[in-house]
Amino acid sequence: MRKKQAERLALSIFGLIIFALGLGAKMINKSLQIPFLDKMTFWLWIVTGAVFFLMVVVFFLDNRIYKGFRYFWNYWTITNGLELQMIDAGFGIQRSYFVELPRIQISFSDGFSSGVLRIRNALKFDRKLDDVVMSSALGKFIVERHHLTDDGNFYVYGLVDGSVSFKQTFETFADFLAYSKTIPTYKLFLDRRSSVKLQHCLLVGMTGSGKTYSLYSLLIQMLSKDVRYEIYYADPKGSSIAVIGSTIAEDRTAVDVERIIELLEVYVTLMRERKARLKERLIDKIEGDYSDFGMSPYVFICDEYASFASILASSEKKTRDKVKAMLYEIILQGRQLGFFVFLIMQKSDATLIDTALRDNIPLKIVLGNSEKQTYVTAFGAGVDIPDRNCMVGEGVFTDPVLAPEPKLVQCPYFKFDILQACIQARVV
Q1: CA dihedral for 15, 16, 22, 25, sign (positive or negative)
Q2: Which residues touch 423 (CB under 8 Å, ≥6 apart)?
Q3: Antiparallel, parallel or unpaired: β 413-414 and 298-302
Q4: Overall pTM > 0.90
């Protein structure tokens, strides 16, 4: 029996005893006709009513009835179900006549699309609360991320309604453009609820996962910004990105490995030139970056990076080392200067991308139902991945600010012509 059930049972027994005393006094008074017994019966029944009324009031208040019936119902069903499953899982301290559970608090957002679960920490449960898969006990909600509060007293779990879709469908380019204009100049939206700062990006997903359309979304956004984004297109397989690049910026598009390396050299040279110019500007704002001075960002997109890396592996060591050094220079220095790389690949294994290089990319997106090793290489070992059957364009991402732990993402879908949209976006 749970502690609060034991408390309610004790109050119920107390109320029944008081009621029985009042009933007994009334029956005795039928024959004796003593006024005092009438008064005693009256007050005993008043106390009985007060006890049961108090129990009802406390029950409804504990379950947040003052926030509305829907809130109350969600709060009660989830906390009750969670407590029962926590007992089954051994998250209880056995006292003499009851089981004491950690204190649970839940809050929901407007619309109940997300929420926050707080569970009181204890010495007995510390590691178990860190490792337990909580989603199975939360009804339609799943745990998206969790952390321990700074004082170590509470585990905090970010919840999201697994049945709610954040995916956007854009019928026309005009619709997409109108929505994109609501996003700040140096930010990109991933779905309806997540917008991230422009930064280095690793986009991973197997064939059919939707990564190409996700890349289209990011690309069209960059092309339609008020500040001009200078984009470089590297596509060793000569697929859609090569077609887009050749159409709108042929001089910044490369397909064969030698040309991609040349493009990288040009890119790094431009970054070094900006570094010299920005150094003069930083005198006025020492902690500033390119965006503080309204500078154009540069983005080097390498689609099918694994193909590029595989061909590069057969090149001489001098060439491999030069490419590696350039990529490191961009990733380690580019954030402040406004020079970024977007690497798109099916897997991010160490055989295809240098581990230190991958680890220094802040925005990582993994789409589709990938293998466990894919998540480990992208996000690191011991990271919780939200349990969800991902459809096309769905997956998880991490971002240092918005999502330190993997967070669900549902990239948009377009019903308009992508190439024409890229051309129009460039001239808007």
Answers
A1: negative
A2: 247, 248
A3: unpaired
A4: no
